[in-house]
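[Meeting: bench + compute handoff]

Bench side (C.D.) handed over the final construct sequence. Compute side (W.E.) agreed to return the predicted structure before the next meeting so the bench team could plan truncations. Sequence as handed over:
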Amino acid sequence: MHLKKQISYPLLWAILILSVITFSCRKDRVIDNNPSLKLSFSNDTVIFDTVFTSLGSATQRLMVYNPSKSAVNISNILLAGGDKSPYRINVNGLSGSSFKDIELNGGDSLYLFARVTIDPTDIGNPFVVEDSILFLTNGNEQRIKLVAWGQNANYILADKYIEGFPPFKIVADSLETVHWTNEKPYVIYGYAVINSYGKLIIDEGARVYFHKNSGLWAYTDGVLKVFGSQDNPVTFQGDRLESFYNDLPGQWDRIWLMEGRTGEDHEIYNALIKNGFIGIQAESFLRLTENKIILKNVIIENMTGIGIFSRYFNIEAANAVVANCGGYCLAFTGGGNYDFKQSTIANYWSYGVRNTPAVFINNYLPDTNDQPVPFPMDFFMGNSIIYGYNQNEFETDMVSGADSLYFLTHCLLKTVYNVGNPDNYNSILKNEDPKFLDHQENDYRIDTLSPAIDYGDPAIAGTVPYDILGNPRTEHYDLGAYQFVPGQDEGGDGENF
C-alpha cells in the first residue's frame, strides 16, 4: 500500500504538467475570427532607395506583427500587381506573388521579404515603380506600399516629417547654392525645399518630375532661379510618362514660393509647368515680400486648381501663357503688384464645370472674424488676351481703405462688364474670339483671321521685342504671347519653345 502511494504521486504530477502544456498550446492555436482585428507592420511603405544604372535587384524586409493574444489566420498575402509585378515576396522561405492561410500566433511576428528587379535602361519604365502587398485577415484588408526607382535619375526623397507640413527634404540649405543640371532628370517624392537663405539654380534643359502630392517649395528668404533657354526649356510635370498622362491635370501639387529678401528675385525663364494642382503659389506668409517673381516665356497649363495663385506678392511677367485650369488661371489676392505684358490667359477647362473667371483680383485678406483687411493693389495688363468658355473671364473684388488700381490696355477681354471706364480700361476688344489655332491641343498661337493681329501697343511690344517662340515683334504688334507668323500651322505647336 505504501509503495503504491510513492508511485502514484510522481505519475499524478507528470499528468498535471502534461495537461498544462497541452492546454497552453491549444490556447495559442485558438484562431481569433474577430473582423476588427488588424495586423501591425514595421513600416507602412517599403522603399527601395537603390538607383540602378544597369539591370539589378534589391531586397527589403518587412515585419508583420499579430498584436492579438490569440492566433490569427492571414487568409491571403499577395501582390496587387500579381504575376506581372516587378516585385516578388518571400513568406516562410517561399517566393511568389500570392500566399494563402498563413497562421500567426498571438503576440508573434513574421518576417516577409520583398524583392524588386529593375532595368533602368528601359525608357518604358515609370520613374517610380509602385505596387502594394495586400493582407486579408478575417475579411479585413490592409496594404503596404512598395516603392522603387525605375530609371536612372536623381531622386529627391522626403526625409523630414513635421506635423502640419508635407513630408520634405532640404535640397538647398541656408547659405548654400545648389545647381540642378540637365544630365539626368530629377524625380521628387515629397517636397523639395529651398531653406531660408538657400538658393536653387535650375539649368537649361533640366527635367523635373513630381510624384503624386509632391512639389517644390522655396521657404522664407529662399530663392529659386530657373534658367531655361529657347532651345532647351526647363520642364516641371508629373512623373507618369505614359501617353495617357501627357495632358492629365492634378498629377502633382505645386511650386510654392514664399517671401524673399531685397535684390534676390525668384526668376523663371523659358519653362513649361504642367499637369499639377497649382502651377505657382506665391505668398507673403510671415511678412510682406521684399522681392518679386519674374516670369519670361513661361507656360503654365492643365492645373486642377489655379495657374498662378498669390497673396500680396509682386509678379512681373512677359510672354506668359496660363491655360486650362479647373479654378482660376490667375488669382491675385490680398493686393500686391502685378505687371503682365504680351501674355495669353485662356481657360477652356473640359474636365468639369468651372464657375470661376480665368482672372480674379482683389485687394484684401480676411481677418480672424472674416472681415476684409485692405492692402494696396497695382495690377497692369497690356497687349494681352483673356478668354475662355465662360461669359465672364475677368473679375475684380475691391474694398476701400488702400490705394488700389487695375488697368488693362490693348487687350482682348471676354467679360459681361462695361469696359468704358478710362481709369481701368483702354483699347479693349470685348468678347471677340481670338481664334487660337487649336485650344483643345493647348496651341494658343493666333490664326490668320484673329482680331488680335496688329492690335497691340507698339510701346508695350517694344519692351518684349520677341514672342515666346523667338519671333520678332518688329513689323506688327499682336496681342498675346504668340506673334502671328504666316504658314505657322504647317508644323510645330505652341507648347514648344
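W.E. noted at the follow-up: Residues 154-490 form a domain with the Pectate Lyase C-like fold (CATH 2.160.20). C.D. will use this when planning the next construct.
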